[in-house]
Amino acid sequence: MSTTTETDRRIADPSASWQAGVVGGIVGALGMAALVVGMNTPTVAVAIPSLYGLAPPPNPAAGLFVHVSHGAMLGVVFAALVGTLGVDSPTKTVGLGAGWGVLTWIGLAALVMPVWLGAVGSPASPPFPNFAPPSLLWHLVYGVVLGGVYVALEDTL
Q1: How far is CA 6 from CA 1, 3, 71, 86, in A?
Q2: Contact 75, 28 (CB under 8 A)
Q3: Residue 4 domain-assigned?
Q4: What gap in Å lies between CA 129 and CA 36, rounded to an integer?
Q5: CA 24 – CA 18 distance, rounded (Å)
Q6: Fewest CB atoms less than 10 Å from the CB: which of 8, 39, 72, 76?
């Protein structure tokens, strides 16, 4: 006689996962942008739009659009990480979001952005590398909000 134990694990709809990532990324990027505008407006008004030749002159609307678009795309990558790593608890998902925020700060804000802004001749080009503590805070907030919104939406979309 053999005994087997089966775990009832819901298989998530892949489209719900990436949709939760997009929405979480947008909400996280908006929360992050609120902090950035309050602490260092030129980041949104000049540095971010300069990446695509949309500033100078200062263009906060374009900067916000670009920033939120980046947040949405990075939210999809986050959703893929959640699925790939098999993260299955809300706490772990929010923790992964915090880690994702730190990784985006290191890889994109501290390393890629200074090089890119220098290459396009932006007046807002920071030194390389740019491990600015306020930027770490902003990206950490992005990641935690992304993770929280992802958890709230992954089962409802």
Answers
A1: 16, 10, 38, 18
A2: yes
A3: no
A4: 19
A5: 10
A6: 8
Residue 117: inside a domain: yes
**Does the residue 7 lie in any domain?**
no
Could you please report the per-residue DSSP string of 69-124?
HHHHHHHHHHHHHHHHHT--SHHHHHHHHHHHHHHHIIIIIIIIHHHHHHHTT-TT
Range(s) of the domain holding residue 131: 14-153
What distance lies between CA 101 and its chain's CA centroid?
A: 6
Res 35 pLDDT > 90: yes
Summarised one tens digit per residue, pLDDT across range 69-107 is 999 999 999 999 999 999 999 999 999 999 999 999 999
pTM of the model: 0.88
**How many domains, in total, are found in the chain?**
1
Listed residue (65, 48, 36) closest to 124, CA to CA: 48
